[in-house]
Amino acid sequence: MSFETQEISCGKCTVDVHHHFFAKESLPAFKRMIPNAEKAVKNNPEMHAFIDAMPTIEERAKLTVSEMNKSNVDEVLLMSFTGDIETVYTAHKMYPTKFTGLIPFIDPRIDSPEVLEEYKEKGAVAIKFYPGSWGAAFDFNDERVFPYLKKCLELELTPMIHFGVMKGGFGNLDQWPANPLELRPWLQHPDLQEQKYIIAHFGAGYLREIFLMAYSHLEQLLVDTSGSNDWINWSPFNNLTQVFEKTIIALTPQHILFGTDSGRLTMRHDVTLRQKGILEDLVTRKIITDEDRWDILGNNTKRLLFSD
């Protein structure tokens, strides 16, 4: 690989695959991504205060490492705003053994597929797509998405896609929950049969649809566990433990990646504590093995994103 990386290890390590990283230097990219950002901030005193107090890259990187240690998280993959690769690249160079890979957002309405080559050179191991925020421009199954997925496959970058409900950021009347079934043309495309896809937040309300696709396309699909997962309140699932159990049956433990969805909070200790507790319970009840537990917490991510 073209950036500082560590030898692939399959042991007892915890890797956060879904961790938003931004700093004071991210504001230009933030305004580029959200055209009405200044107006929205002006009308939101809480957000205005948050932005005014935003740390520098160096300050946030140092704090993140400290918070990682408190949660016993060994590595974090830094996720950046569209056009903010320099922020996460700078943090990665400061702590290459802690921030071992980057996951930049890409917005097909703004970015060309060629920008992925720069991202790869600077340490990207996956690319984040957020089709629900694209408004009426196009959906994820639109043919205009193909060049981005083809470039991802060429560069060995794994697409990570946020389907389902959207809670973060500013209100936008154009936003609508994207359905993971929009993966159909790409899962069936003859030129993309080797591509794998990470679906964030257990599908954020569309877990059943993921299970339906996995029945015939399991080898191409993975989910991450990140976030509060409060979409469960509007689902048939009783709780997050049941979500883990059903996903383990349908996808196997080797298709599940641990993540926190940290962002405004430097490290979401509540997510880490809760999910590690659930996994401990599943091991105790012999639903998974201890090896499965560590696959979910880190080894699956290492094998998927850092194997040559």
The gist of it:
With 308 residues, the protein is of the alpha/beta class. The protein is 40% helix and 11% strand. Strand 6, helix 9 (207-217) and strand 7 (221-224) form a beta-alpha-beta unit.
Count of spatially separate domains: 1
Question: How are the strands of the biggest sheet laid out side by side?
Answer: 4-5-6-7-8
Number of helices: 12
The number of distinct β-strands equals 8
| CATH class category label | Alpha Beta
Describe this structure in words.
The chain has 308 residues and is of the alpha/beta class. The protein has one domain: Metal-dependent hydrolases (TIM Barrel). It is 40% helix and 11% strand. It contains 12 helices and 8 strands. It has a 5-stranded parallel sheet with strand order 4-5-6-7-8. The chain has a 3-stranded parallel sheet with strand order 1-2-3. The protein is globular, with a radius of gyration of 18 Å. The termini are close together.
Could you list some keywords that capture this structure?
about 300 residues, alpha/beta, TIM Barrel, three-stranded parallel β-sheet, 12 helices, about 40% helix, about 10% strand, disordered N terminus
